[in-house]
């Protein structure tokens, strides 16, 4: 990493914008009702919808997508309140996609809590996810905190990022039907599914700071690299057993092809690689491998260089992200992006 040792920690830079982050996001979902008849104080369904959205946001998370844009804009003395609204919109979209992903994947827990659809049913879960997605765009388009000439371009940025994220989810679901997904297949999904909302955070900051098209292009690339780095790091954490999901290899146990595993399968063919491919196929067909088989597979991937190659790729990805940050932002704001890169370089959970 090229960031100096004096680089501030990311947590320090984003902490000032954490207060009321959740309430601000929820406020974007309460649309004005100019034609409500006299005596009607609450639109039908609003109470339940708010309760579902609040429950989803209460599931936790680092709120990074909500906090990046205001931290970047504040560092450059830009319009912080507008950045907070935009960041809240990105966070709403992120959570909306999580609600829909949980339904599509049949997941019953997220961050140790029952998923929304298990509490309210699939139909209402879809409704809540839709509200989180569209409420984000509507909230940004009508926010008085954002200058009028920027509302449409920022609303379009959110909608475009959402469409790209949906495309990534389509690709992810299709990936599971491939008999032997390649490293390129998985990396393509990572770029499409995780990169767009991070690009929205950075491009949104550039637009609020009015830095122009060259900086905007660099901010888009920065988001792609950060999204890819997030996924490679997540795969490494799983391989090392520091992901918070129990022993190492939880993804292997579920049949998910990860970056270190796929690079090992690509680079070291042979009976061991064939055995791991069979293990992955069986897991996707509902026959999870034993703990001993998973431990053996993890040990093989690490021994043949899957971990080392993934670490090197993560470092290269973050180096590209650092370079893009320097092009997208002036030094005062680039510090925030560099702190994010430094945080992703640490494989400590």
Task: Please tell me about this protein's structure.
The chain has 349 residues and is mostly helical. The chain has one domain: Farnesyl Diphosphate Synthase. The chain contains 17 helices and two strands. α7 runs antiparallel to α8 (148-175). The longest helix is centred in the middle third of the chain and has 28 residues, at 148-175. The chain is globular.
Mean pLDDT reading: 92
Count of the separate structural domains: 1
By CATH's scheme, which homologous superfamily applies?
A: Farnesyl Diphosphate Synthase
The CATH class is identified as Mainly Alpha
Count, helices: 17
Number of strands: 2
Structural class: mainly alpha
Shape: globular
Largest sheet, in brief, is: 2 strands, antiparallel
Poorly predicted tracts of residues: none
CATH topological fold name: Farnesyl Diphosphate Synthase
Describe the oligomeric state of these chains in a short phrase: single chain
- How are the strands of the largest sheet arranged? 1-2
Gross CATH architecture: Orthogonal Bundle
Report the helical percentage.
over 70%
Q: How much β-strand is present in the residues?
A: under 5%
Sum up the structure in keywords.
349 residues, two-stranded antiparallel sheet, Farnesyl Diphosphate Synthase, 17 helices, mainly alpha
Question: What topology does this entry show?
Answer:
Layout: H1 10-14, H2 21-27, H3 46-57, H4 64-75, H5 80-105, E1 109-110, E2 113-114, H6 116-120, H7 122-141, H8 148-175, H9 183-193, H10 195-209, H11 213-240, H12 250-253, H13 259-267, H14 271-284, H15 291-303, H16 306-328, H17 331-345
Antiparallel strand pairs: 1-2
């Amino acid at each position: 990493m090229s960031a100096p040792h004096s680089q501030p920690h990311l947590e320090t830079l984003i902490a000032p914008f954490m207060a009321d982050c959740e309430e601000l996001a929820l406020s974007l979902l309460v649309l004005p009702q100019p034609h409500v008849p006299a005596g009607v104080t609450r639109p039908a369904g609003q109470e339940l919808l708010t309760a579902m959205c609040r429950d989803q946001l209460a599931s936790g998370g680092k709120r990074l997508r909500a906090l990046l844009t205001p931290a970047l804009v504040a560092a450059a003395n830009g319009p912080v309140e507008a950045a907070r609204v935009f960041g809240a919109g990105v966070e709403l979209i992120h959570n909306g996609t999580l609600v829909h992903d949980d339904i599509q994947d049949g997941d019953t827990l997220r961050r140790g809590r029952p998923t929304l659809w298990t509490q309210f049913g699939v139909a209402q879960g879809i409704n809540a996810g839709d509200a989180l997605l569209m409420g984000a765009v509507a909230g940004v388009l009508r926010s008085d905190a954002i200058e009028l000439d920027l509302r449409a371009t920022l609303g379009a940025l959110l909608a475009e990022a959402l469409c790209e994220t949906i495309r990534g989810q389509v690709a992810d679901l299709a990936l599971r039907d491939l008999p032997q997904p390649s490293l390129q297949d998985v990396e393509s999904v990572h770029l499409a599914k995780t990169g767009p909302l991070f690009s929205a955070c950075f491009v949104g900051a550039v637009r609020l700071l009015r830095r122009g098209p060259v900086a905007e292009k660099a901010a888009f690339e920065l988001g792609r690299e950060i999204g890819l780095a997030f996924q490679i790091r997540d795969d490494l954490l799983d391989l090392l057993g520091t992901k918070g999901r129990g022993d190492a290899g939880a993804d292997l146990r579920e049949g998910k092809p990860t970056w270190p595993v796929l690079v090992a399968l690509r680079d070291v063919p042979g009976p061991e690689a064939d055995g791991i491919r069979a293990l992955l196929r069986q897991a996707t067909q509902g026959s999870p491998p034993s703990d001993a088989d998973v431990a053996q597979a993890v040990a093989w991937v690490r021994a043949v260089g899957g971990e080392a190659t993934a670490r090197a790729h993560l470092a290269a990805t973050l180096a590209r992200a650092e370079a893009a940050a320097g092009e997208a932002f002036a030094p005062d704001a680039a510090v925030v992006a560099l702190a994010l890169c430094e945080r992703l370089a640490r494989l400590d959970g």
